[in-house]
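Title: Request for sanity check on 6-phospho-beta-glucosidase prediction

Description:
We are preparing a figure and want to confirm that the structure record we downloaded matches what your pipeline produces today. Could someone re-run it with the sequence below and paste the raw structure tokens into this thread? We only need the token string, no images.
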Amino acid sequence: MKVFPQDFLWGGAIAANQVEGAYLSDGKGISTADVLPNGIFGELKERQANDRAIKDIAIDFYHRYPQDIALFAEMGFTCLRISIAWSRIFPEGDEAQPNEAGLAFYDALFDELAKYGIQPLVTLSHYEMPWALVQRYGGWGNRKLIAFFERYARTVFTRYQHKVKLWLTFNEINMSLHAPLTGVGIADNSSKTAIYQAIHHQLVASARVVKACHEIIPDAKIGNMLLGGLTYPLSCKPQDVLAAQQQNHRWLFFGDVQCRGYYPGYMLRYFRENHIALTFADEDSEDLKHTVDFVSFSYYMSGCATAEAELNQRQRGNILDMVPNPHLPRSEWGWQIDPVGLRILLNRLWDRYQKPLFIVENGLGAVDKVEADGSIHDDYRIRYLNDHLVQVAEALEDGVMILGYTSWGPIDLVSASKAEMSKRYGFIYVDRDDRGEGNLARLRKQSFYWYQEVIGSQGGSLTR
């Protein structure tokens, strides 16, 4: 394998609500993730003082981050994608002043990363927001949240301007179409108009925050983050090709607005034909012109689309539901495995936006077995990641500008969809199960040493 560029960033990606724990420690407020204790697709549950949920402790990264960062450094990480829990900084979201204890925690975390020369890539909102903003204002359906989010962003930009130079606005912003409560803080059975109005407010907030970042940290770069929902036509029938194009438009729309600064014509047609009438403020069009510096995305699987009603049997994998591709294998959780799709997606996004790309999530959730001697042989994960990284190398050869790769997640964590520990992604095993039992000990898996070699060789050790 040819080596990757010397400035290519290698690392992993985690989310605050899936790793930190410390559920209400140091002034943290209740978040939307906290009231979905069984995951994105679980039932809403108002939290009581004496109840317990697996994410309340998660993997206790809040207290164990020095140990975990040392393990990341041992693998050779040059980048770690994290998120800041908005409810640690503004516990109820609408306060005038931030919570100092929350700010101090991330100061310490960034300082620990700096000790090892690991660059933080920070997501401002990763599947959580203060629950009080949903209760008092109706979530992102209310324009007031634009100002609350901008206040939060300006606060952390100012505080960490000398420590963080890479930022993302909203994690997988297009997932609000599939899980509105998690994405925009409105009921999952909301109308299309309500969902897209909330999304509009979020897109305006994202653009305002891009402007703020450029003002406060001129040498920083700020990007968006898309759930890469690559869809192929099930056949070469023109009707299937058109169906796939339209399905891809549903998620590319978010990138189009954040990269180009305006709503594309195909989306305006979709609104007209579906009787979706959005309310725009006078300043929104100007605000949206503040576009991102780079495009980041997650990629786990691809799917198909068809215009044939009898063949349109969609199945859920990850957060998306798509028609299965008959030519692809599946993971234990039914997610179709398509390494070549990553090269296709990289080329498509590069051709479309001509902005640097960053793969900020890619990984395999699987059940791992700890052997009697404490070893964990996850060759299936190695094979999955190797094959995807080979396609990243191919995209680089195609001329695509790629900033880096952060696997999801470098250490076992609580899954977003169903709050499981048994769906493990990490190079590092965490001793905790779906019932919350275990001593939280960390163990290096076989993939730990494999990724260490990949990074040390700048990708040269990858095999075709």
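Thanks, this matches our download. The chain has a mean pLDDT of 96.
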